[in-house]
């Protein structure tokens, strides 16, 4: 009943959902909303010592200039690259919505499946773009401009990287036959986990602290990648790095 009520509420904005502007504005709004709390922490941390205790790289400082540079770059990618593609997708494949919401268990299963598939795809993409020097220099190096992560570095990347990872996130729900509500919730979760990965903070309720047995890397895992470059290629989970021998723990 809860999912059906939520889906009925969303369908009340049917005309907006079918708009070519919706995908870009939705992803950008969710992204900026998730970045905002960490931006506030970055602004307060120079003045409040207790906030700095949660910073992974405690001597780092995030300036207004750094934040604005990342934000402007992200806005540029959305306007110049992502928006034209969403318009083409809207023209060739108009959105359609069914009245019935997905079942709870099916929704959870599909979201987890999409997340695991995205994690694998991103791991392979990331590994290749580090192991092949030309790929790194040409496409991925821009994302490594900052060796200290902060939330707005999440989408500080070149067009190819932005489009590649966006393609993985978009195509997986289609491949798995997910309900539109499931697709939306996967996008929201994926954006949150990506922002959290880059936030630069190891907070008490961070995702990696909630998932047992070290199965999930989280912000410390990805911050170590930006610091060391040659390890921790998977965005979220740790099993692929364990299998490929590329896992580097912060305590190592």
TrEMBL record:
Task: Kindly provide the name given to this protein in its UniProt entry.
Answer: Fatty acid hydroxylase domain-containing protein
**Which organism does this sequence originate in?**
Coregonus suidteri
Entry's transmembrane regions: 20-44, 65-92, 107-128
Keyword annotations? Membrane, Transmembrane, Transmembrane helix
UniProt subcellular location:
Membrane
The highest taxon in the source lineage is Eukaryota
Q: Where does the protein principally reside?
A: membrane
Q: Does the keyword Transmembrane apply?
A: yes
Every Fatty acid hydroxylase domain range: 111-246
Q: Which InterPro entries does this UniProt record tie to the protein?
A: Fatty_acid_hydroxylase, Sterol_Desaturase_Related
One annotated GO molecular function: oxidoreductase activity
The Gene Ontology biological process terms listed for this entry are: lipid biosynthetic process
Q: Which GO terms describe its cellular component?
A: membrane
> What taxonomic ancestry is recorded?
Eukaryota, Metazoa, Chordata, Craniata, Vertebrata
- Mind telling me which Pfam families this protein's record contains? FA_hydroxylase
């Amino acid at each position: 009943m809860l999912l059906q009520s939520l889906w009925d509420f969303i369908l009340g904005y049917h005309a907006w959902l079918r708009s070519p502007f919706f995908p870009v504005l939705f992803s950008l709004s969710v992204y900026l909303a998730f970045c905002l709390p960490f931006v506030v922490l970055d602004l307060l941390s120079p003045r409040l010592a207790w906030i700095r205790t949660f910073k992974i790289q405690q001597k780092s400082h995030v300036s207004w200039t750094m934040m604005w540079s990342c934000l402007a770059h992200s806005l540029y990618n959305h306007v110049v690259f992502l928006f034209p593609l969403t318009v083409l997708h809207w023209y060739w494949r108009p959105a359609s919505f069914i009245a019935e919401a997905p079942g709870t268990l099916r929704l959870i299963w599909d979201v987890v499946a999409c997340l695991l598939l995205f994690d694998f795809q991103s791991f392979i993409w990331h590994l290749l773009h580090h192991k092949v020097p030309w790929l790194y220099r040409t496409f991925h190096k821009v994302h490594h401009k900052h060796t200290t992560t902060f939330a707005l570095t999440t989408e500080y990347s070149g067009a190819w990287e932005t489009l590649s990872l966006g393609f993985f996130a978009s195509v997986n729900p289609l491949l798995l036959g997910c309900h539109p509500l499931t697709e939306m919730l996967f996008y929201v979760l994926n954006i949150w986990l990506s922002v959290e990965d880059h936030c630069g903070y190891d907070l008490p309720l961070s995702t990696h602290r909630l998932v047992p047995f070290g199965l999930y890397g989280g912000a410390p895992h990805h911050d170590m990648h930006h610091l060391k470059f040659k390890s921790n290629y998977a965005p979220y989970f740790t099993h692929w790095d364990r299998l490929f021998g590329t896992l580097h723990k912060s305590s190592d």
